[in-house]
Structures are given as structure tokens and as C-alpha cells.
């Protein structure tokens, strides 16, 4: 018996049922989009929703929309008049995300931006209560440097994939710029006196960063 697989099945059987809209979005992503494993998925989605509902944020920033799964999960916790800004580089994914934002009844709360997050973030006005980083791992430090001053004290940054399939503890391939980016980011956050942080070691690792 594969204990890890059985534990995941057990966890999924004991958390809230997956939203039908998210279930449909997940199915379409796996059928029609490259690298569908980039999707947050049900377990991570419930965690994102729970964090957002606890904070009841007025403004959320997401870097890396993909097909919109995580944006929908995060937007469920927004204050009544809150907004979520989400940034995606790949314009071929825009229509899928937009379709499901509408199906979820969240299209008025979610504002889509297409392009390089490093260019778009400075154009957005803070403060943000919650930021979710799930873009190019080589640019995590750049994203952090751009958003940290736009986050209110006590605000939260969630950074995805910070264990990077275990590569953070394996012998480093000097050509692997993605892993280098994650390693540098993790160390930078550890050393930054403006924030406190912990790591949630599920899936590919989620770092919870709180601005002091």
C-alpha cells in the first residue's frame, strides 16, 4: 500500500466537497491545457480559500493566473467590496480563466492582467492584504521586492512550489535556473527582518510569509 496516496485520499474524503465550477475547470484544464499539474487542485484550493476567508481581504494580488483555479479559490474570501488582481503572461489562457470567473459569479471581483508581472505590479495600487506568488520561479525575488512595500502590516504572502519537487535538497544542476530561483528566494525570506515565515510541507511546498 502506498501510504502517501492513501493519506491523500483520506484527506480529500474529509474536507469540503469540490465546487462544481472548480471541478469543471479542473477537468477542462487536464483535457486541453499543457502542464495541467500546474493547477492548484482541490486540496490546495481549500487551503487558499480558508486563508482568504480568515483574512477577509479587501485587495488580493495573484502572480500566475494559469486557468484561474486559485484565483477563484482566493476570491471566495474577499470582503463584499473587495477585488483580486491576477497576472498571467500566457495570453492563450485568458479566455479559459475568464469563462470560469463568470461561471463562478466572480467576474466583477477579479481583474485580469496580461503581461510580465514585473512590469504590471508597479502599476497597481496597494495596499494588498494577501498576495499569492505562483509565477516564474526565477523571478520570485523580483516579485517579492515589488510587493513587500505594498502589503499592509500583518498582511500575508503565500509562495507556491518552494520545495520544488524536492530539488531544494538535491545536488544542484548549475543549468537549472528555476531551482536556483527557489533556493535564493527561500534564503532571502529567511534573512529578511521585515517578515516572519513558515513552510507548509504539502504538495510542492507552500511558504506562508507575514509582514511584521
TrEMBL record:
Xref: InterPro entries: Cation-dep_OMT, SAM-dependent_MTases_sf, SAM_O-MeTrfase
Source organism, top-level taxon: Bacteria
Pfam family membership, one: Methyltransf_3
Molecular function terms, GO-annotated: O-methyltransferase activity; S-adenosylmethionine-dependent methyltransferase activity
UniProt keyword S-adenosyl-L-methionine present: yes
Swiss-Prot/TrEMBL keywords: Methyltransferase, S-adenosyl-L-methionine, Transferase
GO biological process, one term: methylation
SUPFAM superfamilies in the cross-refs: S-adenosyl-L-methionine-dependent methyltransferases
Keyword DNA damage: no
Listed CDD domains: AdoMet_MTases
Signal peptide annotation: none
Protein name: Caffeoyl-CoA O-methyltransferase
